[in-house]
Design a protein that fits this description.
It is a single chain. The chain is built from 8 helices and 7 strands, in the order H-H-H-H-E-H-E-H-E-E-H-E-H-E-E. It is of the alpha/beta class. It has 2 domains: 40 residues, no CATH class; 153 residues, 3-Layer(aba) Sandwich (Rossmann fold). Strands 3-2-1-4-5-7-6 form a 7-stranded mixed sheet, sandwiched between helices. Strand 1, helix 5 and strand 2 form a beta-alpha-beta unit.
Length: 208
């Protein structure tokens, strides 16, 4: 266990402060940049996003409920930006098969340990790290809290539409100015909000 992992352990009272400071350091100039090196650096600290918090757990549960309301039980799900697999565990309770991708090798390794029944690989939605049967589409392609780190959001949305029968994205409310303009022309777009006071996220769902 390295120093960051020790301080970041649940037993450490410095955990929340360290995570906040580390995010600020690692995420400098990361927005809309495709800065894979920065994201890999971020995951030198386990759970840098504080995914075990009540805030994030509430978001996971509400996202699951949203998917059930929109689709029922999807057979296959592709999760873009799976991170360390915290949300993957929730998504796996809804589907028969979950594939997850992330640009951080560290995150993918932890996702494999956290959710061994899923398939995880390092890559991007435009170039999946495994071969797909010709014409195969996932029942749902989902990207939660990741669009604002991509330099070409339109290309990502297009790739999602190419790979899924249905697509869902969520993003933190303050990022709406960056992300929302790219969503308006998607076919049959449905939109709404997820809340955990005082936080709010927007969601957008479409069927290509």
């Amino acid at each position: 266990m390295n120093l960051l992992e020790h301080i970041a352990s649940e037993r450490s009272p410095s955990r929340a402060l360290l995570a906040k400071l580390w995010r600020r350091y690692a995420l400098r100039a990361l927005s809309a940049s495709d800065n894979h090196v920065g994201l890999q650096k971020l995951y030198a600290l386990p759970d840098p996003w504080d995914m075990r918090s009540a805030r994030e757990q509430s978001r996971f549960l509400q996202t699951n409920a949203l998917i059930e309301g929109l689709l029922g039980r999807p057979g296959s799900v592709l999760e873009i930006g799976c991170g360390e697999g915290h949300q993957s565990i929730h998504l796996m309770s809804l589907c028969d098969r979950l594939d997850g991708i992330d640009v951080s090798e560290r995150a993918v390794e932890r996702a494999r340990m956290r959710a061994p029944l899923g398939r995880f690989g390092q890559g991007e939605v435009s170039t999946l790290p495994w071969l797909q049967p010709a014409g195969m589409r996932y029942d749902l392609v989902i990207a939660c809290e990741v669009l604002y780190y991509m330099s070409d959001i339109d290309a990502t949305l297009h790739a999602m539409s190419q790979k899924g029968h249905a697509c869902l994205v969520t993003f933190f409310g303050p990022s709406a100015r960056l992300v929302a303009p790219h969503l308006v022309n998607l076919p049959g777009l449905q939109r709404g909000w997820i809340y955990h006071d005082p936080y709010a996220w927007l969601w957008a769902f479409w069927r290509p």
